[in-house]
Specification:
It is a single chain. This protein has 14 helices and 31 strands. By secondary structure, it is α+β, with helices and mostly antiparallel strands. The protein folds into 3 domains: 229 residues, P-loop containing nucleotide triphosphate hydrolases (Rossmann fold), CATH 3.40.50; 99 residues, Rossmann fold (3-Layer(aba) Sandwich); 130 residues, Alpha-Beta Plaits. Strand 17 and strand 18 form a beta hairpin. Helix 11 crosses helix 12. The longest helix is centred in the middle third of the chain and has 17 residues. The structure holds guanosine-5',3'-tetraphosphate.
Length: 530
Amino acid sequence: MSFTEEIKKRRTFGIISHPDAGKTTLTEKLLLYGGAIQEAGAVKNNKIKKSATSDFMEIERQRGISVATSVLAFTYNNTKINILDTPGHKDFAEDTFRTLTAVDSVIVVIDVAKGVEEQTEKLVEVCRMRSIPMIVFINKMDREGKDAFDLLDEIEQKLNLHVTPLSFPIGMGYDFKGIYNLFEQNVNLFTSQSKQYKGETIAINDVSDPKLGSLIGEKSAQTLRENLELVEGVYPPFSRDAYLSGDLQPVFFGSALTNFGVRELLDCFVSIAPTPRPKKADEREVSPQEKEFSGFVFKIHANMDPKHRDRLAFVKIVSGTFERNTPYLHVRLQKKLKFSSPNAFFAEKKEIVDVSYPGDIVGLHDTGNFKIGDTLTSGETLHYRGIPNFSPEHFRYINNADPMKAKQLFKGIDQLMDEGVAQLFTLEINGRKIIGTVGALQYEVIQYRLEHEYGAKCSYENFAAYKACWIDESTAKPDELSEFKRVKQKFLAKDKSDQLVFLADSQFSLQMTQQKYPSVQFRFTSEKVG
Ligand code: G4P
């Protein structure tokens, strides 16, 4: 198969949702279609349940499983599908944001009863800013939920999207009869007797065909006809170009648990979802078709075995082929590195591969060379963009609880920050270290891992901050900037890449500061998204 054919064959995407909307169940059903797993339940164990908060063994166990399921690859209809796992747990949201830099499209799962939820809003916003093509899957149609039109409205309003349904439900919950597929023009009947729906799909090219009434009953047929007329009147026709540019989001309805509407979703996905897309580097845009290899690290996973401190760096291939035992330039370190055992991922296992193509993810064993966001190339100096840090929501001082182990503690903190577990800020005034996280759970993970992997002990102390605001020193008026720095000295810190950050203690003080020093611009991410 030629290089171009290999690229065309690939679809790399992520599934995003609020916890419990059905992401895990849908992932599993997709894998079953690909023949990648034999039974349901295989992916399920990967979930980081809320109860994990104080159960360290559980966190460890799940870290282990999540290495294996970080990338789930399978082949369906001669298409190589790579699903990148995105943790649904709010405390791991940053991990999800970073993973979204490595996907070419996403499927958004929404619970028909709950509608658009908080976490979905945040994740979709990131995708929208990056113009990532999105397909929406409204799940749990076997249960009572919101009216389909109301839900489509809610999606447009709350998520700021332009949708067009490609399937439409016939009834719902107890009265759920199936789905009309506008994309394929057929009716897919739902039989609730069997939990594992096998599928009876009947072609109905024209909904005025009386056959429809005999299939779903006259009343339902009439309602469906009216609904489809409304759909046609209200929503734009599907356009693949508009979908690919992020301007139109097709919507499917189904029930992942009963495996209903999943095949339709997958078939449509395979036919419309983008092949690996070009990616912007600081220097230029890079096309997947380019022969020279380039890729970037979007995730780092620590080894489970504390005796071997090596880690697995996940690299998304942007262009060219990645080959085993070939020297590549680590751009940040300006150093050539060779990898003798790059891993490729399959449904439940990883294997050493010789050649990988754009769209693929390779896992590289790393002894501390990589940071999230690093670029690897065949030789060109490129810096891929778009892995920003977001302002943390929690801030605490980290103290050394065992003076004999200071070196281990700093090494541990350093490496955990490179993995993206949390963010480190060093106060300008006294050099004290502050850890910022998205969720409180990370503090426990950090403490546990410092002790078990580095033999260091830490304690925390509250630091009252509301937000981390990154400051662009180059655009501020010099006088204003130095006055601001003098007055706010106590609240200034440097992040890990030496950028100046203002740790505002409250929303009020942030507003006052903005008013007082208007030329000092604050950003809530370490770089502009996009
Ligand atoms: P998540 O990864 O998005 O967090 O959601 P997950 O797939 O784990 O699904 C959350 C719950 O919703 C699960 O129930 C799952 O069985 C159920 N679910 C998923 N899809 C459907 C669907 O189409 N219809 C219905 N009725 N339920 C669905 P649970 O009780 O929390 O877990 P479990 O005990 O079933 O494992």
